[in-house]
Amino acid sequence: MKGGRWNLAGEIRRLETSRGLGRGVKGEPGCRETARHIELGGVVQGVGFRPFVYNLARERCLRGWVRNTSAGVEIEVAGPPDEVESFVSDLRMRAPPLARIDWIRVEQSLLDSHEGFRILESRDRLEAYQLLAPDHATCKDCLAELFDPRDRRHRYPFINCTNCGPRFTIIEDIPYDRPRTTMRDFRMCEACQAEYDDPTDRRFHAQPNACPACGPHLEWVEGPRQGTGLSPSHSLMGDSEILAAAGRSLRSGGILAVKGLGGFQLACDATDPGAVSTLRRRKRRPHKPLAVMMGSMEEIRRHCRVNAEEEQLLLSTSAPIVLLERRPESNLAAGVAPGQAWLGVMLPYTPLHHLLMQEAGRPLVMTSGNLSEEPIARDNEEALRRLSSIADAFLLHNRGIYARYDDSVWFVPLPGRPQPVRRARGYAPYPIRLSRSLGKVLACGAELKNTFCLTRDTYAFVSQHIGDMENLETLEHFEQSLKIYEHLFRCTPEAVACDLHPDFLSSRYARERAEKESLPLFQIQHHHAHIASCLADNDWPPERGQVLGVSLDGTGYGPDGTIWGGEFLVAGYDGFRRWGHLQYLPLPGGEAAIRKPVRLALACCQTLLGRVPDLAPFRTLSEEERRTVSRMLARGFNTPRTSSCGRLFDAVSALAGVCLEASFEGQAAMELESAACGLDWDGPCRVYPFSMARDRDRRVLCLEGLFQAMVEDLERGETVGQVSLAFHATVARMVEAMCERMREETGLATVALSGGCFQNRILLRLVVKGLAAAGFEVLLHRQVPCNDGGLSLGQAAIAAARRDKGEGGGSCV
After folding, report:
1. Are 712 and 718 in contact (CB under 8 A)?
2. I need a surface site. Which of 137, 625, 628, 697 has the fewest CB within 10 A?
3. 150: how many CB neighbours lie within 10 A of its CB?
């Protein structure tokens, strides 16, 4: 039975009584054997489930068979009733570490008198589908073999078994068998085939199974980096020689392009300021933090503070990047994460990474293999073409990659509340499981940090991180990934959802597809989708009704023609009401003000205070630029209004002299947060004054008092850290005050927090602390990001609710 709790022993006894079981496999009276037909689903292929079943049956001297199907795993088993009952119970209790059983059906069977227990060939089922395992980090057994000189796979960069290695990135179709993967061209040698065929071996039916004699190998290509004229691969070099060359290149300050699990990464010595600076210049990524790979937990602790939950994430089979507080004594180059108190750190998660770390002997920058804002390069030829202006050398291999797959990023902002910042390797394509069916909906996500969501039955398949949908290359990545999901999960959408913004590439794709296939189209307001995403992430039952939604982010298209981003909603899946918002602020020049927050700070002071204070940040602006901003404000020319909390953070960051110009989205806010790191967030915090006004049927948080008090603090010479902490505490108190007023009016006491601003540790901690003390139930994200990377899940949930109400396509405002 799917989902829910069930009593296995009771269910078997009920079946035996009602269906005449217990009489034997052929139904003869008095026989002391019973038989069962079992089907189960979840992540049960590519994780060693069949050999587990085989050995479990042999252990109990049971007869029958097991096989993969397009829907999962199918089992026939016969033997003494108590052994059969114990066998079925152990399917869940002793399942392999990477398996995830979502449902199981146990039925009466009249099994023929087979001898022993067998593993049968896989069977296709029309339109059936199954869940797929993500790629997983190298297991301890393979790691021990990798560094054992006596093992035949000693230092082999592609060692794996049923408990680790590539899965999603190499699968082309289901059932998951080697001919349906990118490993089909590598014919196993006699020794590997023997392991593959032996149900007692941990490499039994490990589809990527290989060794130096029969499997993939490394290739080495060196510069020059001018886009042409790359030297040919050193075909006479073996894997060990290539790894040694890669180590020398990294130790001497070189930039290395490395073919990983789901695409290319760019690596350099993280302790070498020159190498980091060179990588940033070539990659066109001047300030955005770079991830660092370190060889062990001991090395990580030398550079970062790590708590138990962060360590658990780092050591998990998913092995994501984890954002950790950097120690002041760390010798990593300052350019790895300039202006940031936190560092994105990961452990090696493939045998190639383990070997490369050993050769380099130091922490390595390990960042996406792309130019800024492009998708990661996937294939060798593509990488040689796109990355030749960045990399000094290429560490390639000849195992194909079917699905692009970037690294996942997580953080632990509150005890017991880890959250993803970017969901990809190690997590996708495993779905978000819901207690109700959403049907077949395609939600196309937002423009920034795009993901799509494809739903079927009670599963919401949120894609791996696609990226910012601002160019043709990312759109092509979106379309290719969507085709993979539709095919693997046998799902053709029956409705399409997208953001309300008409010009997003994802919205254009949704409109064109809905028109082409005559599907209902649901255009959904950005911040409503954020709140619905948080609700779906927590499997909030629709029958519980609406919640108080606080959605704080950078940009969302409002149906009133303004830019929203500091929103207080009364919302459920099927609708919302905008109860309140932050005071509108001017954006002189639109995107220009976002790229140069000091312009925004000047506009805020002039608008809110009627003057521009004599502070150092404003002296960086020329007189001409100041006059231009003043004229734009006076005439309202090219000056959209926004209630964005993200833009408020940008303005305060510039006002405090932290970040005057930004090269990536969120930079000013992140640096403002880092300025308060090291102060006591949990003690009493000073709160700046603010007020609440009414604008027709909405409450508005007014910001004049906040800006006046901050300016006075800065004019008196208050430290930037203290100003930053007081500002964070003020925003948190604003949220609490608005929620208290909303509760008085609506009687609702559950608050859902979503939007990219809640990636801010200080803000999130203070908001949750204040709301909990005021008696609110607080819902936070758990499985998808609170930023736009989780938006597609909310879009799908809203579209399904509106469809179920009988609404046709159209905008949802």
Report:
1. no
2. 697
3. 6
| Integer Cα distance of 301 and 326 in angstroms | 9
Using 50 as the pLDDT threshold, list the residues of the chain that sit under it. 1-30, 226-229, 812-813
DSSP 155: T
pLDDT, position 769: 97
Give bridge partners of residue 34 from the DSSP assignment.
79
Query: pLDDT tens across 114-152, in order?
Result: 789 999 988 888 778 889 999 999 999 999 999 999 999
The correct CATH number of 8-119 out of 3.30.70.330, 3.65.10.10, 3.30.70.100, 3.40.50.970 is 3.30.70.100
| Domains 8-119 and 218-409 alike in fold | no
- Dihedral angle, C-alpha 428, 429, 432, 438, nearest 10 °: 140
Residue 236: predicted pLDDT: 67
Q: Is 554 left (phi over 0), alpha (psi -120 to 50) or beta?
A: alpha
The CA–CA distances, whole Å, from 644 to 74, 470, 701, 736, 740 equal 53, 21, 12, 18, 21
Q: What angle do CA 76, 78, 82 make, to 5 degrees?
A: 125
Nearest to 345 by CA among 371, 369, 319, 368: 319
pTM of the model: 0.92
Tokens for 699? 């409450």
Q: 563 has which bridge partners?
A: 557, 642
CB 160 within 8 A of CB 166: yes
Class of domain 218-409: alpha beta
| Second CATH level (architecture) for the domain 564-570+580-779 | 2-Layer Sandwich (3.30)
- Taking phi first (over 0 means left), then psi (-120 to 50 degrees means alpha), and beta for anything else, what does residue 260 get? beta
DSSP one-letter code for 463:
P
| Pairwise CA distance, residues 410 & 345, whole Å | 10
Residue 136 identity (one-letter amino acid) = H
> How far is Cα 356 from Cα 379, in angstroms, rounded to an integer?
20
Please name which of 214, 153, 209 lies closest in space to residue 187, comparing C-alpha atoms: 214
Distance of CA 789 to the CA centre of its chain: 7
Task: Give, for 22, the enclosing helix (H) or strand (E).
Answer: none
- DSSP type of residue 412: -
Q: Are 709 and 691 in contact (CB under 8 A)?
A: no
Query: What's the pLDDT score for residue 340?
Result: 96
**Antiparallel, parallel or unpaired: β 441-443 and 495-499:** parallel
pLDDT at 484 (0 to 100) = 96
Whether the CB-CB separation of 220 and 234 falls below 8 Å is answered with: yes
Tokens describing residue 92? 């869940």
CA distance 358 to 185: 30
DSSP 8-state class, residue 233: P
Task: Give the number of other CB atoms < 10 A from CB of residue 269.
Answer: 26
754-778 pLDDT per residue, tens: 999 999 999 999 999 999 999 999 9
What are the sequence ranges of the domains in the chain? 8-119, 218-409, 564-570+580-779
CB burial string 384-400: b at 16+ within 10 A, e below = bebbbebbbbbbbbbbb
How many other CB atoms are found less than 10 A from the CB of residue 656? 26
Distance CA 215, CA 45 (A): 22
Provide the phi-psi class of 22: left if phi over 0, else alpha when psi is between -120 and 50, else beta: left
pLDDT at 111: 67
Smallest CA-to-CA distance from 307 within 410, 455, 162 is with 410
E strand or H helix at 460: strand 459-462
pLDDT at residue number 234: 54
Q: What does the H/E/C string look like for 92-135?
A: HHCCCCCCEEEEEEEEECCCCCCCCEEECCCECCCCCCCCCCCC
